[in-house]
Each structure stands twice: as C-alpha cells, then as structure tokens.
DUF1116 domain-containing protein (Microbispora hainanensis), 461 residues
Amino acid sequence: MTLSMLYGEPRVITVGAQVLGEALDRQAVPRREVGWRPPLPGTAPALARVLADPRRESANATAVGRMLAARPMLTGVRPAREALGLAAGEFFHAGPPISWERASGPMRGALVGAMLFEGLAATPEEAEDRLASGAGITLDSCHHHRTVGPMAGLVSPSMWMLEVTDAEHGGTAYCSLNEGLGKVLRYGAYGPEVIERLRWMGEVLGPVLAAAVERCGPLDLRTLIAQALQMGDELHNRNRAATSLLVREIAPAIVEAAPDHAAEVLRFINGNDHFFLNAGMAAAKVSADAARGVPGSSLVVAMARNGTDFGIQVSGLGDRWFTGPAGVPDGLYLGGYGPDDANPDIGDSTITETTGLGGFAMAAAPAIVRFVGGEVSDAVAATTSMYEITLAEHPAYQIPGLGFRGTPVGIDVALVARTGLLPVVNTGIAGRVAGTGQVGAGLVSPPAEAFTAALDALCDV
C-alpha cells in the first residue's frame, strides 16, 4: 500500500490485498486497485537476463509479425505416404516425442488401431506385441514433420491429409481428416467400427475431398476462421460455424466432382460439427511455423501434449522441446464417466491457442461453456487475461463481444514467467484406458516448468 498525502485527500493504491481493499471501501477511502502477481518462483535471475536482452524486442516483433501475416490456404488433400513420405511401420503422433513404454492409454490405443488399419497386425494383442518390441516400427512427433494431429494425433501412411499452404511465406502444414466424436482413433478407440470408418475415409472421403478442392481451388482459411469467430466459434472445441462455412464453400464442388458419393460425404461432414477443426489446426501450424527461427525471440511457436508430457517450442530456441507433466483437465464428463476415468491432457490441438484461438478466443464463443463447464463470464475472463502474456492482437481474428478487439496472440515465455499466468487451454478429455474413447471436455493448465525451462535456455543463446 502506498499513500500520497501531498495534496487533498489521501489516495491509496492496493496491490493484491483484497481484504484490505474491501475494508477501505467500507470506509469510503479513495483507492486504486492495481493488478499484480509475483513472477513464477525461482525465475527472477533468468527473467532479468531475458528482459535485458537487446535483441528481444525486435526479435519478438519480427516473429509475431510473421505469425500475424500468415495467409493459410487449403490447397489439397493427399495420402500421408505421398504428402509426408510415410512408409509401412512409420507413425507420427501428437506432442513431444515419446516411446511405447511411456505412452498413455489413449496413445497406445491409437497406435494399436493404426496397426490394425494398416494391416500390420491381425489382432490388438499382436499389435501391442509388435509395438512393444519395436521391430520394424518408427514413432516420431507430428511437429517434426510440419504436421499436427488432434488428441493422440496418429498419422499412418494410408490416412489422407489436409494440405495447407501459407500464401504469404510459402510454408506448408498438414493435418489428418476429422473422424467425428465418441469412439474414434484419436481418442484411443480401435474397435471394428473405428477401423471401418477409417477405411471408408481412405477409400471415399479423402479422394472426394481431393477432387473437390482441386476443382474449387485454394480455400482461404484465415477468412473462414475470422467469420466463424464472429458467428460464435472459438475454433478449438467449437467449430460448428466454421464447418458450416466450409461446407458452403466446397459442397458444389463435391457434387460436381463425385456425384455418386456426394450424398454420403456431405452427410458425414454435416453430422460432424468438429470437421473444420483439423483444417483450422493445419492453418494454425503453418502460421506458427512462419515465426520459427528468430534469434533472441521468446515467442512460443508450439504447444503440444502426448498424454504424458506437455511440451512447448520457442522461436529463438530451434526445435528443442521444453516439457512438464501433462495435467488432467477439469470439466464436464459424458454419461457415467468421471475424473477417475480421464487421461492427462493429450493432442496437438493446442496449436490453436498458440495462434490466438481456442481458449484464447473463448470470449467469442459463450456457448462453449456448455461443453467445457463454467459460466459465460469465465469465458470472457479467460480471454481478457491472455492479453497479459501475449505480444499482439490478431488483426483478422476479432471478438464482437469485446468491441471487435483482436484475439490475444503470441505467447511470450518471459511474460508468462513475469505474470505467473499460464495459457488457458480448452480440450476434449480422452479415457485413460486404451479403447475407451472420449469421456468429456474441459479446461487445463500447462505445467509451469515447461515455460521456466525455456526461459532458462534463452539465457544461454
């Protein structure tokens, strides 16, 4: 508390002392409340060095400027073996690199399902034995290959990928096609219905979408995302408007390119409000990748989870991962499921938060609270708090309820350390037992140690 009694009535500034502030209010003492939080514990020396780095301000302006300038366009749909060079026995997964031994239930379930889908095993038991032995099997992070995947994020050679190109910087990113909700591979389910759906997606959905995109030309995803935000989406756990906008763009081309399959393809997309999510993730990935490799920059260019670890990558620190244990989301559960059934956080879909969407844009999507829990005021508070740890406001992604203010974008590890605020993430919840599928949705906080480790590393470059 600081008093200034040079002129007139005493003025009181309160910092964090809520009880004292309320007592002063009852006495009608004029005061001003200042929001302040201590830095994350133990970060003061590293924080001082990073903030004093003469490169930081310019480097961050360059990195976030590239992110904001990106113009993601959906340019194609291709099999992973063609787009990514995947061979039999090679699999990409969500989050930082992980081995079978450390993999969580849903990650193991998705790997088993991918083995069955690719014909590398006849039974789940055989698939588990091969994966455990490692013979002829290669696992790697999607992020190492310009790719992102929701939840377990499994990509195998026969899966079809959305190809998104940055018309501004020329980069390319990929994401698989969305299966829908419930018992699906990305949540670790691998029953016969899961494999059958994947085969239909490979034989029908992928080729039809490829022909349609080729026919109608590149689709401007940045514009679709901007429109969807103004229609009530936040582009992570709510994609209803974005999916509808996408269907409106490509439906005529689907009918023209594949009249024999048009009805079943459109029916599938229409029944899946999350269909746009994967296109939005690839758009976010190519935008974040544009900001990579700026020496001295403390901008986060990736946040991702593998169901065991939560990891981040930073523009000025190359491809290094900084990790901590993934937390269990707090949210709403389906049917008879509860917190004991939940796996720790999983998926590459936090690439949306990395680029100012998802949890950072919840103020644009008040209906999201019915899916992840809380009140509308919580969604607004989540978004407004993120302006404290970001470097910019997105010029295209605007929130009507905040006077068309741009979404907070460009997470700065130094600002995270200085404020003690961690990024807000909203997410689906996978069942911890392999084969279960989705059990709910909610909010989760990243581990602070991922950001403090990155901060320490910035001191040495």
